[in-house]
From TrEMBL:
Domain SseB protein N-terminal: 26-130
Pfam family, any one: SseB
Naturally occurring in which organism (per UniProt): Mesobacillus zeae
Protein name: SseB family protein
Length: 144
């Protein structure tokens, strides 16, 4: 059985893959269930990359790109520029945004897909995102 970190190394062609702290936390949560709460806390406080573009007539407005994934309206999000480049095959507009800001502006019926097209992917379903918005998921894991 191939280890997940070996798969990541194979994808990047590197034996010294440079995972950022969020990616390391996700990898730890995937391999050890007692690290899931740590991942949620780090994710909630992270800045991520989203596909989309600003609006010229309203500089504070932003168009998010939604996709369909497993029959759900989903927002692809990325923990790093490397992960984003694995997903897109052409030049696309993207922006950095805090997870909390994204949760505030995104369609509440949408899911989030972290790092689609990579080995280190995580789908956040609607209920999970609602629990992130309210902090309930953090309290749930802090109680363990």
């Amino acid at each position: 059985m191939t280890r997940l970190d070996e798969n990541i190394n194979n994808q990047t062609g590197s034996t010294q893959t440079k995972l950022n702290p969020l990616e390391k936390s996700l990898l730890a949560a995937i391999t050890s269930s007692d690290k899931i709460g740590d991942f949620y806390m780090m994710f909630k406080d992270s800045e991520i990359l989203v596909l989309g573009q600003g609006r010229e007539e309203k500089p504070d407005a932003f168009y998010l790109r939604y996709i369909e994934y497993e029959n759900q309206v989903t927002i692809p999000v990325f923990s790093s520029l490397f992960a984003l480049k694995q997903y897109i095959d052409q030049e696309s507009s993207y922006s950095a945004i805090s997870v909390q800001e994204l949760l505030a502006i995104a369609d509440p019926s949408a899911s989030l897909l972290l790092n689609p097209g990579t080995t280190l992917t995580k789908l956040f379903v609607k209920k999970e995102l609602e629990m992130l918005r309210t902090g309930e998921i953090i309290r749930l894991f802090q109680g363990k």
